[in-house]
């Protein structure tokens, strides 16, 4: 069943999509693709800079183009940006030949992880005025139903290391 399909990781910023995805790809002998990294490479700007220049709608257009491109290939582990589920077309493209795994955690855990990542502030924009833990709570309230609807599998990663999360995903699939 795993032979040709993609494994797609969704979830909020700080849920571990990139690290868990890298581990999964190594363990399964697959290519790892991070759509945010591709967007940054192609735009020649950080996500924060893209948002400043073209706003969230412009960023989401770039994201959709990259999602469509990577979803058309097989046998990958794909980590998508936390907001990719905001566009149903992205979810549909990813589901065509992929199993979607939602890496879920509570707002406080996500906020701690985001704060621990030194690159976040320089490269990622606040998506609500003021940002912070309240932003995480607000956006989770909007995105949780979308993550739930998109996911084929849900894994609570609150108390898991990336290695443990990768092992559980392999066992579940």
What labels describe this entry?
8 helices, 14% strand, 5 strands, Rossmann fold, 5-stranded parallel beta sheet
Count of discrete structural domains:
1
Q: What is the third-level CATH name, the topology?
A: Rossmann fold
**What sequence of helices (H) and strands (E) makes up the elements?**
EHEHHEHEHHHEH
Amount of helix: 55-70%
Rounded radius of gyration (Å): 15 Å
What's the CATH architecture? 3-Layer(aba) Sandwich
Structural class of the helices, strands and pairings? alpha/beta
Give the CATH class.
Alpha Beta
What does the average pLDDT come to?
92
CATH homologous superfamily classification: P-loop containing nucleotide triphosphate hydrolases
Task: Give the topology, please.
Blueprint: E1 6-10, H1 17-28, E2 31-34, H2 35-43, H3 47-71, E3 76-79, H4 88-95, E4 98-104, H5 107-116, H6 118-123, H7 132-150, E5 153-156, H8 162-172
Parallel strand pairs: 1-3, 1-4, 2-3, 4-5
Helix pairs in contact: 1-8, 2-3, 3-4, 5-7
Notes on the structure:
By secondary structure, this protein is α/β, with parallel strands linked by helices. The chain is 58% helix and 14% strand. It has a single domain, classed as P-loop containing nucleotide triphosphate hydrolases (Rossmann fold), CATH 3.40.50.300. The chain contains 8 helices and 5 strands. It has a 5-stranded parallel sheet, with helices on both faces. It is globular. The N and C termini lie close together (8 Å). The mean pLDDT is 92.
């Amino acid at each position: 069943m795993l032979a040709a399909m993609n494994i797609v990781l969704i979830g909020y910023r700080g849920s571990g999509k990139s690290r868990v995805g890298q581990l999964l790809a190594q363990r399964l002998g697959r290519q790892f693709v991070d759509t945010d990294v591709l967007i940054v490479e192609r735009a020649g700007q950080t996500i924060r800079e893209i948002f400043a220049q073209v706003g969230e709608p412009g960023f989401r257009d770039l994201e959709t183009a990259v999602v469509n491109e990577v979803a058309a290939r097989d046998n990958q582990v794909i980590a998508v940006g936390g907001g990719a589920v905001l566009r149903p077309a992205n979810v549909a493209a990813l589901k065509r030949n992929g199993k979607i795994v939602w890496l879920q955690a509570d707002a406080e855990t996500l906020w701690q992880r985001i704060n621990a990542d030194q690159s976040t502030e320089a490269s990622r924009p606040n998506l609500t005025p003021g940002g912070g833990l309240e932003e995480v709570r607000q956006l989770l309230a909007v995105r949780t139903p979308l993550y739930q609807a998109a996911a084929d599998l849900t894994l609570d990663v609150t108390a898991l290391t990336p290695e443990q999360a990768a092992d559980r995903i392999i066992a579940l699939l």
